Backbone:
């Protein structure tokens, strides 16, 4: 009988403790709903760590952040408090997407810098993030307003010489100079590549310059990962048409060691350019006699975009719709070279 009363008392005591615990949990949940400053929410890192106390007494800090994010890549940023509201200073350079109450993923879009700001209940912190380019692309808009017929070595240490800058061809229908067309395409390509996450270095951005072919190569060697030389073709026969890509072959005595990468760059651009424009594919051509190749120390390709001496191609290459397709094709070729496009 005595044992029976002891058991009943023990059961009653357990029931009382259970009721107190239950009331406590209800009270906590009730307080959380009523008072927004009190949080009993679990964090979102799946470790079920409880966040206790008032937000007023807690400092807002980053628990994960990055100084650099590459264009086309994603990185997670996180703070220690729930209810975070995020803002990026320039949506053209980077975009953000909410994961949960404390985390976002930031995607790099264009080369540059942004400030990432977080607010939680009157608290505010920020961090600067550098958006790194996919690569640095050099663009050489071939020719210039006036030719330079002075001579320079065809390659480093060579006794063979060529003129510094030729005059180029001219449109049979438009009357436009090759140098002008090359610059139009180069400037549009610059903007397209920047939009795709590349940093771009231009040899020239105006017609009135005097830069030799060796100087052009040297300028891009200093800052760039690859070099694209923009040109158009010409012939005495107005029926000849099509695009070709030139590159330094393995037999090149100056840059033969970069022939493989240059060939890959040229073939990627040729494929995508033809897909976008529908211009006849005249293939890949190895050249040892181009000063702009021979002074390069980075992978390099030269595109002959089409024949300005062919009526239909000349008009196509000067039309706004044609130039858009040409620029899109070259840019996609760069994307394919770096593995961002199939």
Residues:
């Amino acid at each position: 009988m005595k044992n029976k009363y002891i058991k009943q008392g023990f059961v009653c005591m357990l029931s009382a403790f259970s009721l107190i615990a239950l009331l406590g949990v209800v009270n906590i949940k009730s307080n959380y709903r009523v008072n927004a400053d009190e949080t009993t929410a679990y964090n979102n890192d799946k470790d079920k760590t409880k966040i206790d106390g008032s937000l007023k007494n807690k400092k807002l800090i980053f628990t994960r952040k990055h100084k650099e994010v590459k264009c086309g890549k994603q990185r997670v940023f996180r703070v220690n408090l729930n209810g975070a509201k995020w803002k990026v200073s320039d949506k053209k350079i980077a975009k953000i997407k909410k994961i949960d109450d404390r985390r976002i993923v930031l995607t790099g879009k264009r080369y540059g810098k942004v400030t990432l700001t977080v607010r939680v209940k009157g608290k505010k912190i920020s961090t600067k993030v550098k958006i790194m380019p996919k690569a640095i692309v050099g663009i050489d808009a071939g020719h210039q307003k006036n030719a330079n017929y002075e001579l320079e070595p065809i390659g480093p240490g060579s006794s063979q010489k060529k003129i510094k800058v030729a005059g180029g061809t001219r449109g049979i229908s438009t009357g436009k100079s090759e140098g002008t067309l090359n610059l139009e395409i180069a400037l549009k390509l610059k903007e397209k590549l920047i939009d795709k996450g590349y940093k771009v270095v231009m040899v020239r951005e105006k017609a009135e310059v005097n830069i030799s072919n060796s100087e052009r190569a040297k300028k891009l060697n200093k800052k760039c990962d690859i070099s694209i030389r923009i040109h158009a073709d010409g012939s005495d026969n107005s029926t000849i048409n099509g695009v070709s890509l030139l590159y330094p072959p393995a037999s090149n005595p100056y840059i033969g060691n970069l022939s493989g990468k240059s060939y890959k760059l040229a073939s990627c651009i040729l494929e995508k350019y033809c897909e976008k424009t529908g211009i006849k594919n005249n293939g890949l051509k190895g050249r040892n006699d181009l000063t702009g190749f021979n002074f390069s120390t980075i992978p390099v390709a030269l595109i002959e975009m089409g024949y300005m001496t062919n009526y239909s191609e000349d008009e196509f290459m000067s039309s706004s719709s044609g130039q858009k397709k040409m620029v899109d094709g070259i840019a996609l070729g760069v994307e394919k070279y770096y593995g961002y496009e199939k």
About this structure: The radius of gyration is 32 Å. The chain has two domains: 55-132, 136-337. Residues 2-34 form the longest helix (33 residues). Residues 136-337 form a domain with the Aminopeptidase fold (CATH 3.40.630.40).
